[in-house]
Amino acid sequence: MLPWTLIDSSEIPGDGGEMRLYRRGPAEYSIRVGNYELMNNRLYGSEDAMAQFAVERLEKRPVRVLIGGLGMGFTLARVLEVVDAKSEVVVAELVPAVVKWNRGPLAEFAGRPLDDPRVSVREEDVGKVIRSERAGFDAILLDVDNGPTALTSKSNDALYGMRGLQATAAALRPGGVLAVWSAGPDAAFTKRLEHAGFDAEQIPARGRGKKGGPRYLIWIARRKK
Question: Per the confidence metrics, is the pTM higher than 0.90?
Answer without folding.
Answer: yes
